[in-house]
């Protein structure tokens, strides 16, 4: 979780709110950690992790520029759905 979060911070350093949302989304999607573990890291509850991740996914579906950024970050961090 920390590795993903730090990687996102290094790339999206200018926007802390976007950085947090993207980190949470990528951790939820790729880290294989439980909602409880992710929530504990970000200081939020399990359902909040799920909701925030879902909302960010909806944003990605409608924002091509942001989707390209997130795909770039995923590739840079060597994230994959294994």
Give a structural overview.
- The chain has five helices and no strands.
- The protein is mostly helical and 82 residues long.
- The protein has a single domain (2-76), classed as Orthogonal Bundle (Chromosomal Replication Initiator Protein Dnaa, Chain: A).
- Helix 2 (16-30) crosses helix 4 and helix 3 crosses helix 4.
- The longest helix is centred in the middle third of the chain and has 17 residues, at 46-62.
- It is globular and about 30 Å long.
Which key features would you list for this structure?
single chain, 82 residues, mainly alpha, Chromosomal Replication Initiator Protein Dnaa, Chain: A, 77% helix
In short:
The chain is mostly helical and 82 residues long.
Helix-strand makeup class: mainly alpha
Q: Can you identify the CATH class?
A: Mainly Alpha
What is the typical, i.e. mean, pLDDT? 92
Helix-strand pattern, N to C?
Answer: HHHHH
Q: Provide the CATH topology.
A: Chromosomal Replication Initiator Protein Dnaa, Chain: A
* Low confidence ranges: none
Q: Total domains, how many?
A: 1
The outline comes out as globular
What profile does the largest beta sheet have?
A: none
Helix content: over 70%
Report, as a whole number of angstroms, the end-to-end distance: 16 Å
Total of helices:
5
Classify the beta-strand content into a percent band: under 5%
Radius of gyration from the alpha-carbon trace, in angstroms: 12 Å
DSSP E strands, number: 0
Q: Which CATH architecture? A: Orthogonal Bundle
CATH superfamily: DnaA protein, C-terminal DNA-binding domain
């Amino acid at each position: 979780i920390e590795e993903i979060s730090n990687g996102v911070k290094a790339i999206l350093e200018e926007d802390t709110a976007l950085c947090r949302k993207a980190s949470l989304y990528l951790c939820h999607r790729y880290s294989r950690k439980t909602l409880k573990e992710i929530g504990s890291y970000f200081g939020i509850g399990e359902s909040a992790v799920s909701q925030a991740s879902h909302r960010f996914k909806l944003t990605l579906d409608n924002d091509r520029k942001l989707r390209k950024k997130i795909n770039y970050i995923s590739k840079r961090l060597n994230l994959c759905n294994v």
